[in-house]
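Need a sequence for this fold. Nothing fancy.
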């Protein structure tokens, strides 16, 4: 679904170039597109952080399983000629039980799949961010038309949001605090021509 929107975005933007010397861009439209780029950058960072944490979780669960499986396999051979065979069997059985528990946790939590999903979304948000930055770095008359950019990238952002896996509250709060953002967007929504009024008006309680 997202790939379809991306192809539509590129086709629409290329086919909606301005005549030379004309532009329908305004500062308010630029600010809106810039806010989308910033949202994409924040989402990219959150998904990247989530991917790294699921990688760590996968390692912490998988490595003990490998280690315990090796130990119990060697221990089973060593217990065959031991005078304390029964005790070795209890120890081996306990280690096998703990190893099975960790393997079940890996299967239940699916850290590798979640890591891959978050990594993919981080790359898609990064591509979205860079595409918008390219548009904003061009002179207004060199860009695709504002209407084409807004329609296409709005649909593309909605497709990204629909495909995105959930981000934990911990990662969300940490990212917001790191970037000095109060979710959602300081609880303020800009209205054209009323920016000063809205900044000075106290928030409803």
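Here you go.
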């Amino acid at each position: 679904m997202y790939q379809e929107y991306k192809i539509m975005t590129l086709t629409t933007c290329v086919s909606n170039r301005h005549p030379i010397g004309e532009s329908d861009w305004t500062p308010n439209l630029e600010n809106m597109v810039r806010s989308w780029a910033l949202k994409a950058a924040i989402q990219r960072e959150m998904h990247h952080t989530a991917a790294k944490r699921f990688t760590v979780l996968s390692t912490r669960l998988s490595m003990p399983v490998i280690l315990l499986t090796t130990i119990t396999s060697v221990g089973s051979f060593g217990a065959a000629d031991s005078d304390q065979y029964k005790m070795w069997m209890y120890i081996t059985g306990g280690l096998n039980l703990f190893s099975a528990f960790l393997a079940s946790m890996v299967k239940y939590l699916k850290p590798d799949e979640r890591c891959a999903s978050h990594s993919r979304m981080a790359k898609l948000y990064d591509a979205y961010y860079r595409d918008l930055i390219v548009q904003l770095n061009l002179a207004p008359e060199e860009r695709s038309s504002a209407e084409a950019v807004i329609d296409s990238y709005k649909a593309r952002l909605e497709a990204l949001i629909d495909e995105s896996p959930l981000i934990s509250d911990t990662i969300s709060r940490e990212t917001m605090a790191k970037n000095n953002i109060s979710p959602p967007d300081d609880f303020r929504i800009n209205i054209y021509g009323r920016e000063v009024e809205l900044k000075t008006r106290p928030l409803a309680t």
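For context: The longest helix spans residues 27-79.
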